[in-house]
Each structure stands twice: as C-alpha cells, then as structure tokens.
Amino acid sequence: MTGEQPPLLETIEEVRGSLAAVRARGGTIGLVPTMGALHAGHGALIERARRRDDCVVVSIFVNPIQFDRRQDYEAYAIDMGQDRRYCAELGVDLVFAPPAAELYPRPQRAFVEVAGVSEHLCGKFRPGHFRGVATVVMKLFHIIEPRRAYFGEKDGQQLAVIRAMTRDLNMDIEIVPVSTVREPDGLALSSRNRRLSPAEREIAPVLFRALQRGRDTVLDGESSSSEVIRAAAEVLRHCPGARVEYIEVVDADTMQPAGRITGRVMIGAAIWLGATRLIDNLVCEPPAAERTS
Ligand code: PAF
Fold first, then answer.
1. Reported pTM
2. Non-local CB neighbours of 240 within 8 Å, separated by 6+ positions
3. Is residue 280 within 8 Å of 206, Cβ to Cβ?
4. DSSP 37-77
C-alpha cells in the first residue's frame, strides 16, 4: 500500500529545522544514505531503520567527488519521482535530496581520508573513491546528526571505511550493517544491474558462484588465501564474458590482505560485464575459528 509522500527537502537549513523538532521530542533519527535508483536492497536498510528509529531519513545524492570517472557521474540516472514513491511505500519520514551546489557550494578543500581500509580491493582500482564517500557521509552525518546510520554489507569495504571513520573520529553514531539482498539466482541487488544487457544479466550470477566457491574452500579448511583466490578465479575463468578486475581475501575488519586465513575474512571481487562493473563479497571464517568463537 502506498503511504503519504514524505517531504522532500533540498536545503541544509530546511532539513536541520525539520529534524530539530524530532530531537526536541526525544525521537531518534536513523539515516539511510543513498545515491537514489532505489531497489529492494535499499528497502532492507529502510525497513531496518524503521524498526530501530523514530524518524527515518533517506538521503538521495549522487556524490560527484566519489566518481573516479566523470562520464560515470554524468551517466548516473535517477528518477526522483519513483524513488520518492518507493520511500512513501516504506514509510520513510523525510527525503533529503540536495542539489550538488548545496553540498559543494565551492570547491571542496577538506576531505576525510581513511587510511588502510581504503587501500585494497576497490580502493586500488578507484583512486579517490573512498575519500569521496567518507567525505560526503561525514557531511551528511553533520547535517542530519543521526543516532544510527544503515549501510549494506554488499559494499563491504565501504562499510569498513565508514566504521573506521566513526570510530577513529569518536563519532557517537551507530553504524548498522544490513545483509546483502540477492536475486533468487544469487546476484546481489545493485543499481548497476539495470545496465546489464539480457545476455550479461544471465551470466552475472557467476560472480556470486565464484565467491561461494572461495568460501567453500575456506570452510573446507584451506588456509592459504592464494588457493582460495585460485578456486574462485577458476569459476570465472569458465565465463568468457566476465573480465576479472580483482579477487582478494582480506581481514574482515581491517580490509588488509589476509595471507594465511586464521580468522574472519572477506572474499571480495569485482568483475566487468561489458561496460558494467559489478562487485560482491562474502564473509567467512575457517572451521577452527568458528569453533572457538
Ligand atoms: O553506497 C552509496 O550509495 C554511496 O556510496 C553513499 C554511501 C550514499 C555515499 O554517497
């Protein structure tokens, strides 16, 4: 059932004014930061926020400074009307959708750099990406001042970056991870899936299958990361349409290459199907670590 359309606010002043009333009556604010093009993965974040917080704010902002390629930013299409209707269906209280000039009225000079966790996986291939993400999320945190913020595990490295940022900078905001939502064939939901041709969509679940193979190898007791990577890569090798950008096994918290697998690790991968880049990950731990935890 479609609920009432939530107010869509475009300025920092308006959103601060509106949320001051929530805070004054002792309500908690939950923030779901997005770049629009909402799908059921965002829906899961919103639903989780609705269960925990009194007021759910969804931000919709295509952040120019996190794109490493200008043409990707320019091609990033969102339908605000559709996103707002989706927010209404899920009972969102407020949508904050500022134009770029509201968040970046002048060239940005201050940035948030989260060392270490930003380095490997996507960080290696998308220079400046996590600096752009951390900077805009910090801005949103200062504007909205949420009690909690909700991020999908699908973007596992992004989640680790935001966690490290809030911990290291002593921010009193709980970062709530939400499980990846998948299609029945395993493909993780992503706004980018809409760009796949029918043929690419058919082969896209190979990414999840490769990660599953990697995870099974860890669960079978393999402790060498390179063997795990080799097993996952073998699945992708049989799929000529997929170009592998990376497969890595990293410590699940620090995002540093694991070498020998002795605790919780994240197996992360990025592939290209034509002009579309897909990422996904699975977290697992070796059988001995599971027994002792
Ligand atoms: O995950 C996203 O959609 C974006 O990276 C985020 C967190 C909204 C920052 O622009």
1. 0.96
2. none
3. no
4. ---HHHHHHHHHHHHH-SEEEEEE---GGG-SSHHHHHH--
Active site (catalytic) residues: 42
Q: Give the three-state DSSP class for 6.
A: coil
**DSSP 8-state class, residue 4:** P
**255: CA distance to ligand 1 center in Å?**
18
Angle ∠(5,9,11) on CA atoms, nearest 5? 175
Looking at residue 16, its amino acid is: R
- Helical segments of 119-205, H only: 122-125, 129-144, 156-168, 198-203
Q: If you measure from the C-alpha of residue 227 to the centroid of ligand 1, how many angstroms do you get, rounded to a whole number? A: 32
Q: Would you state the structure tokens that stand for residue 35, as one six-digit string? A: 């770049």
Query: Whole-number mean pLDDT of the chain?
Result: 96
Q: Token pair for residue 116?
A: 């270490």
pLDDT in tens, 165-179: 999 999 999 999 999
Token representation of residue 121: 């996986």
CA dihedral 260, 261, 267, 272 (to 10 degrees): 20
Q: Is the CB of 157 under 6 A from ligand 1?
A: no
Residues in the chain: 293
Residues in CB range of 202: below 8 A, 6 or more apart: none
Report the phi/psi class of residue 99: left, alpha or beta, with left for phi > 0 and alpha for psi in -120 to 50: beta
Which residue minimizes the CA distance to atom 1 of ligand 1? 34
* pLDDT range class, residue 42, cuts 50, 70, 90: very high
Task: Find, among 133, 42, 26, the residue nearest to 82 by Cα.
Answer: 42
Q: Tokens at residue 12, please? A: 């920092």
